[in-house]
């Protein structure tokens, strides 16, 4: 058992624009975060991951950085940041930052210089290519719709942007770029931060020669993930970064790596690799997407057997070799309680159920702001109320393709990133207590019922359930280090597993649906001797026989030994 603090931690993710506004400009800020540190301390979390707070023109809410060593004006100053770090540390909370180095903003001085002329000394900081047959250099589609290439009139060349055209990709083949990045990373680490979440790190290396992706239909743009995801050279770059920079510090590092399975993940996180501690995998985020997961906006119903298959694979392949980062929510995903739970009739029960799952698997649990009070998706009637560049680009492209408005809006309601980005609901006062001004994005209308003040006051709330789950992790080492064994593999509604290490064993029973199935445990499990440690229903402790009915979205955690 290779013990590490980052394995034993619970991480809380803050999306600063939407967390807490202290000055009434409608945008969350660092003083706002500072004012809520005690709330987070009471919740029991160990680490904050704060999404980008650097200077940015905000085309992608801070993921388009124009100065890596300055704080976004709307968020405050470097003094505020230093105060946040000191105040978090004073409460025993660590802080990790978002490292966005696949691209910068098109307003970063490097890009302005690079763009200024073909002979610029910084031309090679980015990826410039000539067009082909009067069009872009190849057919790769951007994550945010359209081509990955943007034409630059004055020079007649195209630059590459995997995300929006305001996010040109850095050229990681240029040693000067790498040196600049290392310098910046050291600068932050020397301030005393505790690690990084590596944004879009799987994409920093692109296929040699930028070949077209195969497409029998000859469309102008096609999904081309294989051309810029998880390519072999990424690993050389990460190992070099470790050797020269990261290994000198005691850090938590987690990479955002879509498009891989656990075997490939081990190339990033295998103990002997010296690259990253963990990665965010996306397989379970594709359960409800069409075309085997590539059609983000085309929906399909998800099923529990597939979830079991994916998560069991990650649990077993990584055990003893690498470490999982477990999540259902983040700033890019719709709210899990609306997506995999039931935000109408069983909001609290299903929010607790999903939490029980994430917190009792092997791996570090990540909680996204608002998840701990059971915040739900939003449904704005008009596209004008949406702010996310991915949503707006998709809307425009889909309209061009003549997809009916209603179909587009339905897709946005269920999958759009703004579902997770509406302001944190602190109380039932106007604008949910998020701001005294006009929020940058509308507050979810359910804030009078769903808010932190109500949740803190109600001992039976989702919030208090999270507190108990987090405390349970601290009390039982088996939750952190135990191995995972799936039970009832073919049960379509109940997800059951044990976690075992040394002499301890836990049993987790989760009914993922509204129906009330009978739970029939295998003979090897002796429930009579078990102690119920946690449940989201009061009556659960009354069942001691081998077969019993589970309540809608019921979750139970037992200690077997
Ligand atoms: O989501 C993906 C595919 O569906 C990923 O491949 C991709 O890595 C992801 O969209 C990247 O997200 C991150 O970088 C973006 C930013 O907009 C997101 O908020 C951030 O999490 C660009 O910086």
List keywords for this structure.
561 residues, alpha/beta, TIM Barrel, Oligo-1,6-glucosidase, domain 2, Immunoglobulin-like, 3 domains, eight-stranded parallel beta barrel, five-stranded antiparallel β-sheet, 16 helices, globular, binds 6-O-alpha-D-glucopyranosyl-D-fructose, cytoplasm, alpha-amylase activity, oligo-1,6-glucosidase activity
Helix and strand topology:
Elements: H1 5-8, E1 11-14, H2 30-35, H3 37-43, E2 47-50, E3 54-55, E4 67-71, H4 78-90, E5 94-99, H5 109-116, E6 128-129, E7 149-152, E8 157-160, H6 175-189, E9 195-198, H7 233-244, E10 252-256, H8 262-269, E11 278-280, E12 289-290, E13 295-299, H9 304-318, E14 323-326, H10 336-339, H11 347-360, E15 364-368, H12 389-400, H13 405-415, H14 452-457, H15 462-475, H16 477-481, E16 483-487, E17 494-501, E18 504-511, E19 518-520, E20 531-535, E21 547-549, E22 555-559
Parallel strand pairs: 1-2, 1-15, 2-5, 5-9, 9-10, 10-11, 11-14, 14-15
Antiparallel strand pairs: 3-4, 6-8, 7-8, 12-13, 16-17, 17-18, 18-22, 19-21, 20-22
Helix pairs in contact: 11-15, 12-13
Residues 60, 63, 100, 143, 163, 199-200, 256, 258, 296, 331-332 line the site of 6-O-alpha-D-glucopyranosyl-D-fructose.
Account of the protein in words:
The chain folds into three domains: 8-103 and 175-468, Alpha-Beta Barrel (TIM Barrel), CATH 3.20.20.80; 109-160, Oligo-1,6-glucosidase, Domain 2 (Oligo-1,6-glucosidase, domain 2); 483-559, Golgi alpha-mannosidase II (Immunoglobulin-like), CATH 2.60.40.1180. Helices cover 27% and strands 17% of the residues. The chain contains 16 helices and 22 strands. The protein has helices spanning 5-8, 30-35, 37-43, 78-90, 109-116, 175-189, 233-244, 262-269, 304-318, 336-339, 347-360, 389-400, 405-415, 452-457, 462-475, 477-481; strands at 11-14, 47-50, 54-55, 67-71, 94-99, 128-129, 149-152, 157-160, 195-198, 252-256, 278-280, 289-290, 295-299, 323-326, 364-368, 483-487, 494-501, 504-511, 518-520, 531-535, 547-549, 555-559. The protein has an eight-stranded parallel barrel with strand order 1-2-5-9-10-11-14-15. Helix 12 (389-400) runs antiparallel to helix 13 (405-415). The longest helix has 15 residues, at 175-189.
């Amino acid at each position: 058992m290779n013990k590490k603090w980052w394995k034993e931690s619970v991480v809380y993710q803050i999306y600063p624009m939407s967390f807490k506004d202290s000055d009434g400009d409608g945008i969350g800020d660092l003083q706002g975060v500072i004012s809520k540190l005690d709330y987070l301390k009471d919740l029991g979390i160990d680490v904050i991951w704060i999404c980008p707070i650097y200077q940015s023109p905000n085309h992608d809410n801070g993921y388009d950085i124009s100065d890596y060593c300055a704080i976004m004006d709307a968020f405050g100053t470097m003094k505020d940041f230093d105060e946040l770090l000191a105040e978090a540390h004073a409460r025993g909370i660590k802080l990790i930052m978002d490292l966005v180095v696949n691209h910068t903003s098109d307003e970063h001085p490097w890009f302005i210089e690079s763009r200024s002329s073909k002979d610029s000394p910084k031309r090679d900081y980015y990826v410039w290519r000539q067009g082909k047959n009067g069009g872009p250099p190849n057919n790769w589609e951007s994550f945010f719709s359209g081509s990955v290439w943007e034409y630059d009139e004055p020079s007649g060349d195209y630059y590459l942007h995997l995300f929006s055209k305001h996010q040109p990709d850095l050229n990681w083949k240029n040693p000067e770029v790498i040196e600049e990045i290392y310098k910046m990373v050291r600068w932050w680490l020397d301030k005393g931060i505790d690690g990084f979440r590596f944004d879009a790190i799987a994409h920093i290396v692109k296929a040699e020669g930028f070949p077209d992706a195969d497409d029998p239909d000859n469309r102008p743009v096609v999904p081309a993930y294989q051309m810029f995801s998880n390519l072999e050279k990424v690993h050389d770059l990460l190992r070099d970064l470790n050797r020269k920079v990261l290994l000198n510090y005691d850090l938590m590092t987690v990479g955002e790596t879509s498009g891989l399975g656990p075997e490939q993940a081990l190339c990033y996180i295998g103990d002997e690799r010296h690259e990253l501690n963990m990665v965010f995998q996306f397989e379970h985020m594709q359960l409800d997407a069409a075309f085997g997961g590539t059609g983000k906006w085309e929906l399909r119903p998800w099923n529990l057997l597939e979830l079991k298959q994916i998560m069991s694979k990650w649990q077993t392949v990584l055990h003893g070799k690498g470490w999982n980062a477990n999540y259902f929510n983040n700033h890019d995903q719709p709210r899990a309680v609306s997506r995999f739970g039931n935000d109408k009739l069983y909001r609290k029960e299903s929010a607790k159920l999903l939490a029980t799952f994430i917190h009792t698997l092997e791996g570090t649990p990540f909680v996204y702001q608002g998840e701990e009070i059971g915040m739900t998706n939003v449904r704005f009637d008009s596209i004008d109320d949406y702010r996310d560049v991915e949503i707006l680009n998709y809307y425009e492209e889909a309209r061009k393709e003549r997809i009916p408005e209603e179909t587009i809006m339905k897709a946005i309601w269920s999958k759009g990133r703004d579902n997770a980005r509406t302001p944190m609901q602190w109380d039932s006062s106007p604008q949910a207590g998020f701001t005294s001004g006009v929020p940058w994005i509308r507050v979810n209308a359910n804030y009078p019922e769903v808010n932190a003040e109500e949740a803190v006051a109600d001992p039976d709330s989702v919030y208090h359930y999270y507190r108990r789950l987090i405390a349970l992790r601290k009390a039982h080492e088996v939750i952190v280090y135990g191995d995972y064994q799936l039970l009832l593999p073919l049960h379509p509604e109940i997800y059951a597993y044990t976690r075992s290490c040394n002499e301890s064993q836990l049993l987790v029973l989760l009914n993922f649906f509204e129906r009330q199935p009978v739970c029939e445990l295998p003979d090897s499990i002796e429930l009579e001797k078990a102690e119920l440690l946690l449940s989201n229903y009061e009556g659960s402790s009354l069942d001691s026989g081998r077969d019993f009915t589970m309540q809608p979205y019921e979750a139970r955690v037992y200690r077997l030994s």
